[in-house]
Amino acid sequence: MSAAAAPAHAAATLRPGAPAPTTPDARVAGAMKGFAREIGALSAFRLESCIHCGICAEGCHYYIATEDPQYTPIWKVEVFKQAYKREASPLAPLVRLLGFKRAVRADQLEQWQHLLYDSCNLCGRCSLICPMGIDVTALIEQARSAMFEAGLAPPALYHRAAHQRETGQPEATAEPLREQLQAIGERFEVPLPIDQDAADVMLCVSRTDIEHYPAAVAALARLMQHLGVSCTFRSAALVAENYGYYAGAKDWQGEISRRLIEQAIACGARTLIIPECGHAYTALRWEAADLYGGPLPFEVLAASEFLAAELAAGRLKLRRAAGPTVTFQDPCQLARRGGVEAAPRLLMQAMGIDLREMKNHGAFGFCCGGGGGVINIASARPLHYRTMETKMHEIEAAGGEVLLTSCSDCRYTFDDAQAHFPGAKAPASLLELVAQHLDDQRAPAGKPA
Ligand code: SF4
Ligand code: SF4
To answer: What global pTM score does this model have?
Structure first.
């Protein structure tokens, strides 16, 4: 297999506040330290179990689009497998003695930045189809953590993660997010409760929505109002996204999650609702408790999950209305890695939507192409657009007049792609559609969450 070309920004990221791995040896030491920290019995088992069948390649849209062997999912962790075999496997002394595996070099790590960040959406499709049940995506996440320790997280992700860890939001904004949120409430004439001392539900917001899709923020608030839910945003922890997760900065990811956790505890929330943001769901639903150090004293639900439960309980009343046919983009972190596959379909069914599914949908759907932080990495764009072709063909073939999704990053990715795929549909938000279908004639009076 050919090694990936090292991107120009490969050596540009060092971690402030920690010994900076500026020399090649220090980079390797940092990466190995990070990998050693992450590797456990389960990961060792995964690395040992691979039978090199190559089936995971058929599941990955990077390989499908390019047929380049370097984009085979398990190859993306090869450099760390090499380190494991040489340093930590049961036969490590023999491997070293006989020279079966060479020591990892700094230039190898720099080359692997492209494979671990630019060309992986952390979408989980490879893990789904591996016949040995190897969670390749989890290995890639661990490898990203090691790359972060080596100072090799891409600057676009590193700086956002660092800023979010320091301030609570990924980038500085001319107007604080709290004021932006209030302005959305005024513009859409919907109450946006902020900093209530006590609430049953804590809400957070996708920064992508605040910047690009404020109607989705208003829709969530409108739905909460309709249901009579006691809820609040907390200005100390507004942002759902977690760039520490993307960068592979496990400690920072934990600190970013902790902000939300502490605010939810402070207001006594029993439920934390994640807005339309796939990776925020993974970070908070599946990974936050581990990084927090114990079970969360509240449940974490995606907005679509919460609404589907309200629908099933008879509290959410929706109008069925004739409308355009719909093709639905399942966010990977919700449908495949989170199991939230039925909830959006129950909501669409209740609205009388004629759903035209893609060939690969639900848990088997392909990533929009923007996940894993890829949409934030400029150098990844050419390959990203090439990779999106599979998805765009499936959307076209499905034939829905409207492209709907429940992730604002998917939505932004499809919006961004319109310039590259003439005739591509503008994506729409499931949350906004649900708010438009509220049956106000049968609105329930204030109910407990
Ligand atoms: S599908 Fe599984 S066993 Fe086959 S090469 Fe990929 S990771 Fe290894
Ligand atoms: S997680 Fe998705 S993008 Fe990454 S290697 Fe696996 S299938 Fe490919």
So the answer is: 0.89
For residue 134, how far is its CA from the centre of ligand 1 (angstroms)? 7
Closest CA to 370 of 329, 401, 315: 329
Please report whether residue 260 resides in a domain: yes
| Rounded distance between C-alpha atoms, residue 168 and residue 170, angstroms | 7
265 Cα–ligand 2 center, Å: 35
Beta strands in 165-305 (DSSP E): 201-203, 231-233, 271-274, 299-302
Residue 24 is inside which H or E element, if any?
A: helix 24-38
Q: How many domains does the chain have?
A: 3
**What average pLDDT is seen over the chain?**
89
Residue 218 forms part of a structural domain:
yes
Q: Which of 153, 178, 202 is the last residue of a domain?
A: 153
H/E run at residue 404: strand 402-405
Predicted local confidence at residue 21, as pLDDT? 61
* Mutation probe of ligand 2 site: the residue of 46, 55, 122 with most atoms within 8 A of C-beta: 122
CATH of the domain at 344: 3.40.50
The enclosing domain of 63 has a CATH number of: 1.10.1060
Burial category of 51 from C-beta neighbours within 10 Å (exposed 0-12, middle 13-18, buried 19 and up)? exposed
Q: How far apart are the C-alpha atoms of 196 and 388, rounded to whole Å?
A: 42
195 and 139 both lie in a single domain: no
Residue 6 lies in a domain: no
What distances in angstroms separate CA 229 from CA 160, 184, 285, 311, one per listed residue?
Answer: 33, 19, 21, 14
160-164, 234-238, 321-325: least confident range: 321-325
Specify the 3-state DSSP secondary structure of 248. coil
Residues within a 6 A CB radius of ligand 1: 50-56, 74, 130, 132, 134, 136
Of 92-96, 150-154, 155-159, the one with minimum mean pLDDT is: 92-96
Does residue 267 share a domain with residue 205?
Answer: yes
Cα gap 208→63, rounded to integer Å: 28
- Of 387, 334, 327, 329, whose CA–CA distance to 357 is shortest? 327
Burial bucket for residue 92 (CB in 10 Å: 0-12, 13-18, 19+):
middle
246 and 379 belong to one structural domain: no
Cα–Cα dist 247/290, whole Å? 18
Please give the distance, rounded to the nearest whole angstrom, from the Cα atom of residue 58 to the centre of ligand 2: 10
Helix orientation angle between 136-149 and 41-49, rounded to the nearest 10 degrees: 120
Residue numbers of the domain that contains 85: 11-153
